[in-house]
């Protein structure tokens, strides 16, 4: 039996899970069994066409596009990402908050605009990713390298372990959600209309953009950039960055993604506390677009039961298993610099007996 056939999970999925990573030796599980990749050439050809077309889209954006298209490109990109990070990821895969029907419909629309497969399949793969991180059962196993974790996993057949563990993961909550099942059932009709036809037609009819620019910029380039940013969470955010919360796992807090402020950059935090609706610790630096979007709908009462982790719990965990890169939490933090301690003024001191 290859090492990764082990049934032991490596990661935390919900609040009810314990600190799995702390109590188990993950060394064996992280070794891939070296099975040969079976390439899916249709996907490879389509991704090559998409990326070449998107480079042309960048050129059009700077040379031919109307000002309205230029101004609306970034907002269109952000709402596309929200459909995955806020909808498929935080609402459905991790159940970090609840949403009423109108908000679920908004998330389903945005999720279809992002075309990363139906929420049902995305959430299944993502739950397996968290539960069996860095093993062959992980759909985007970063132990196979950056390229595999980024896009390679979509260019080949799934490892048998991914299929096997995917069948075992509990999806009963998604199956009980009629809106999720509606999107799954009609995905092949909904996706082409929402992801490609609408973003091409609306700029043409609303502000007179050309068909060529609408197609290459608002349909293809928007989709391509959103894909690559989200794929970076699986690739770069499992490789290049700090581990303030748990140094024993591969996911990292990824500076490049954090700088975009769209969410999911604090990936070390997210793999330790995946049930936190913010996917990050509290504070001004963790205020990303997805969190603000959920906060806004919570203010309206459309999003509710938002789950968070207490600062105290975060600090204790960072002290216990972090790599020391966590910001100083206060007086007495082991990472507090001696010169800072020396320069601190303490008034009203009580004389020790
Ligand atoms: Zn991850
Ligand atoms: Zn996640």
Automatic annotation (TrEMBL):
GO BP terms: unsaturated fatty acid biosynthetic process
Cofactor: Fe(2+)
Keywords recorded for this protein, A-Z: Fatty acid biosynthesis, Fatty acid metabolism, Iron, Lipid biosynthesis, Lipid metabolism, Membrane, Metal-binding, Oxidoreductase, Transmembrane, Transmembrane helix
GO MF entry, a single one: iron ion binding
Cell compartment(s), UniProt: Membrane
Main localization (coarse): membrane
Region (Disordered): 330-353
InterPro entries registered for this protein in UniProt: Acyl-CoA_DS, FA_desaturase_dom, FADS-1_CS
Keyword Transmembrane helix applies: yes
Parts of the chain that traverse the membrane: 39-62, 69-93, 105-123, 186-207, 213-233
A Pfam family assignment: FA_desaturase
UniProt xrefs under PROSITE patterns: FATTY_ACID_DESATUR_1 (PS00476)
Keyword Metal-binding: yes
One GO term describing the cellular component: endoplasmic reticulum membrane
Protein's membrane topology: Multi-pass membrane protein
Domain Fatty acid desaturase: 66-274
Stated family: Belongs to the fatty acid desaturase type 1 family.
Domain notes: The histidine box domains are involved in binding the catalytic metal ions.
PANTHER family membership: ACYL-COA DESATURASE (PTHR11351), DESATURASE 1, ISOFORM A-RELATED (PTHR11351:SF31)
Protein name (database record): Acyl-CoA Delta-9 desaturase
Record organism: Drosophila suzukii
Name of the gene encoding the protein in the UniProt record: Fad2
């Amino acid at each position: 039996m290859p090492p990764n056939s082990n049934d032991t999970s490596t990661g935390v999925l919900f609040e009810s899970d314990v600190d799995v990573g702390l109590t188990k030796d993950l060394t064996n599980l992280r070794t891939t069994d070296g099975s040969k990749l079976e390439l899916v050439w249709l996907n490879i050809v389509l991704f090559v066409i998409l990326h070449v077309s998107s480079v042309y889209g960048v050129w059009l954006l700077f040379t031919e596009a109307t000002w309205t298209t230029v101004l609306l490109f970034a907002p269109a990109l952000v709402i596309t990402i929200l459909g995955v990070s806020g909808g498929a990821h935080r609402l459905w895969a991790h159940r970090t908050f609840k949403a009423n029907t109108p908000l679920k419909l908004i998330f389903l629309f945005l999720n279809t605009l992002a075309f990363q497969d139906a929420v049902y399949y995305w959430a299944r793969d993502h739950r397996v990713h968290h539960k069996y991180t860095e093993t062959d059962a992980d759909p985007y196993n970063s132990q196979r390298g950056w390229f595999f974790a980024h896009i390679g996993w979509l260019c080949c057949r799934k490892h048998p372990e991914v299929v096997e563990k995917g069948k075992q993961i509990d999806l009963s909550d998604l199956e009980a959600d009629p809106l999720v099942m509606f999107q799954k059932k009609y995905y092949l009709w909904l996706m082409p209309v929402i992801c490609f036809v609408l973003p091409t037609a609306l700029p043409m009819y609303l502000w007179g953009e050309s068909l060529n620019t609408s197609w290459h910029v608002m349909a293809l380039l928007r989709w391509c950039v959103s894909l690559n940013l989200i794929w970076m969470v699986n690739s770069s955010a499992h490789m290049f960055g700090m581990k303030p919360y748990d140094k024993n796992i591969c996911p990292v807090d990824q500076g490049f993604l954090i700088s975009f402020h769209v969410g999911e950059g604090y990936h070390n935090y997210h793999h330790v506390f995946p049930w936190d609706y913010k996917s990050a610790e509290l504070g001004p630096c963790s205020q990303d677009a997805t969190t603000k979007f959920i906060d806004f709908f919570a203010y309206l009462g459309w999003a509710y039961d938002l789950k968070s982790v207490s600062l105290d719990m975060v600090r204790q965990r960072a002290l216990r298993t972090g790599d020391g890169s966590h910001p100083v939490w206060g007086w007495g933090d082991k990472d507090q610099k001696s010169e800072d301690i020396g320069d601190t003024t303490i008034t009203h001191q009580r004389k020790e007996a």
